[in-house]
Amino acid sequence: MKLVIAGGTGLIGNELAKELEQEGHRAVVLSRSPERYENEFGDNVTLAAWDGRNPGGWVAHIEDADAVVNLAGESISGAGFLPDRWDADKKKRILESRIAAGEVLVRAIESVDKKPQVLVQASAVGYYGSTGDALITESSPSGDDFLASVTRDWEASTEAVEALGLRRTIARIGLVLSTEDGALPRLLLPSRLFAGGWFGGGDQWWPWIHVADVAGALRFLIEEEAAQGPVNVTAPNPVTNKEFGKALGRALNRPSLLPVPAFALRLALGEVSTTVLEGQRAVPERLLEMGYTFRYPQINEALDNLLQEQKQRRKQNELDLA
């Protein structure tokens, strides 16, 4: 099997490409800076330059691909320890980067004679907006905030491939847990310094998922012919923010007693604070119905695995430097 992964050098794409490579499949990773990742992958992964907006040499890789995975788009939170504020320019980049990438992939698929069989379009559970304690499945309506609007447009950006005969599935991904990137590294530091706790009231739901299950679920959606339309890519057991904080404290053998007031987060982060102060009790109803088996369905085992892997990597790095 050969896959083309747009946005493949990010957290999810990196994990997916490496899993495919380990199983003998081929992957082409489209990246704006492929030279930065030359030593990241093995021989079965090809890096191809693209700008996320215009056709180029990378289009040739679409010709013989079995599937395309579109993960491309500017990071919602940014690369720093503290999330970027959502000023007008940041919001514009978040939206336009997603729409442009989806549209140029559609144009590329239209231009080739032998088309892929399936396109997996990334999205997020932010599609549903802030939903309180309501149980959220794929049939739940969209929200009306900024992230809900962005995800609707992101999903629509590749809709035209369906008219070309491709099966298209939309992966509405939850809070991805990894010690390499994303939210978890930002949460680990205060917890290790005995300053762990929860945000605001702590009763907002966090629809988390282990990064290995994101990669596994995307593979499943590529291969499962019944997978079409929206699919929640979240663990089957969401937790509240307070429960998450306690689980993280247990995994680190640290207390989880220091809540961060909501007003302080809003003051420090502005509108982006909604990503931690609000949430969705989203569950993967369709994934479970289609038969996907989660590797890490419970938050405690997911955190234990991630922290153990981090410890092993540090030991290996120390040995390499010795």
Number of strands: 13
* Unreliable residue runs: none
The largest beta-sheet arranges its strands as 3-2-1-4-5-7-11
User: What is the tally of helical segments?
Assistant: 11
Rounded to an integer in angstroms, the radius of gyration calculated over CA atoms is 19 Å
Terminal residue distance: 40 Å
Helix content: 25-40%
Oligomer: single chain
Biggest sheet details: 7 strands, parallel
> What is the 3D form?
globular
Q: Give the helices and strands as they follow along the chain.
A: EHEEHEHEEHEEHEEHEEHHHEHH
Structural class: alpha/beta
- Round the mean pLDDT to the nearest integer and report it: 93
Which secondary structure elements does this structure contain, and how are they paired or packed?
Layout lengths: L1 E5 L4 H12 L3 E6 L13 E5 L10 H4 L3 E4 L17 H24 L6 E7 L10 E2 L9 H11 L10 E7 L1 E3 L5 H10 L12 E2 L1 E3 H13 L5 E5 L5 E2 H12 L9 H8 L4 H4 L3 E2 L2 H6 L8 H23 L1
Parallel strand pairs: 1-2, 1-4, 2-3, 4-5, 5-7, 6-13, 7-11, 8-10
Antiparallel strand pairs: 9-12
Helix pairs in contact: 1-6, 3-4, 7-11
Describe this structure in words.
By secondary structure, this protein is α/β, with parallel strands linked by helices. It is built from 11 helices and 13 strands. The protein has helices spanning 11-22, 60-63, 88-111, 146-156, 183-192, 211-223, 241-252, 262-269, 274-277, 285-290, 299-321, and strands at residues 2-6, 26-31, 45-49, 67-70, 118-124, 135-136, 167-173, 175-177, 205-206, 208-210, 229-233, 239-240, 281-282. The strands form 4 sheets. Strands 3-2-1-4-5-7-11 form a 7-stranded parallel β-sheet, sandwiched between helices. A two-stranded parallel sheet has the order 6-13. It is globular. 44% of the residues are buried. The model has no long low-confidence stretch (mean pLDDT 93).
